[in-house]
């Protein structure tokens, strides 16, 4: 069994799509729009077959996303090397995204950094 995709509601669908394409190498489809409900979405595909569905619909309620809470907390992206983790973390910081940890080697052996991007959601960048 494998995870087929992960879905994420966002307020700014185009900005979210652009983030995952620009910084994380995703390939976005042409999008979907349900004229009746005004639901919109993109599927963004990544190397190895992982897919992220970015979605928007009218009247979403955006709750604060505390980093220390239960539930889904981050999406992790493997970029292939420590150097690439460092490089991407520097680029994201320079572009105004908050780095909340790292780059560092964690107690369980991961080399990673974590940033807050896309409407307060945490993204992990790892080898």
Describe this structure in words.
The chain is α+β, with helices and mostly antiparallel strands. It has 2 domains: 51 residues, Roll (2,3-Dihydroxybiphenyl 1,2-Dioxygenase, domain 1); 53 residues, Roll (2,3-Dihydroxybiphenyl 1,2-Dioxygenase, domain 1). The chain is 18% helix and 36% strand. It contains 2 helices and 9 strands. Strands 1, 2, 3, 4 and 5 form a 5-stranded mixed β-sheet that branches. The chain has a 4-stranded mixed β-sheet with strand order 6-9-8-7, covered by helices on one side. A hairpin with a 5-residue loop joins strand 7 and strand 8. It is globular. The two termini are 24 Å apart.
Percentage of residues in strands: 35-45%
Tally of domains: 2
Count of beta strands: 9
Question: CATH top level of the largest domain?
Answer: Alpha Beta
Q: Percent range for helical residues?
A: 10-25%
Which stretches are poorly predicted, pLDDT < 50 over at least 5 residues? none
Cα shape: globular
N-to-C series of helices and strands: EHEEEEEHEEE
Q: How far apart are the termini?
A: 24 Å
> What class do helices, strands and sheet pairing give?
alpha+beta
The CATH homologous superfamily of the largest domain is called 2,3-Dihydroxybiphenyl 1,2-Dioxygenase, domain 1
Count of runs of 4 or more consecutive helical residues:
2
Whole-angstrom Rg: 15 Å
- Can you give the mean pLDDT? 94
Second CATH tier, the architecture of the largest domain: Roll
Major sheet description:
5 strands, mixed
Which fold does the CATH topology of the largest domain refer to? 2,3-Dihydroxybiphenyl 1,2-Dioxygenase, domain 1
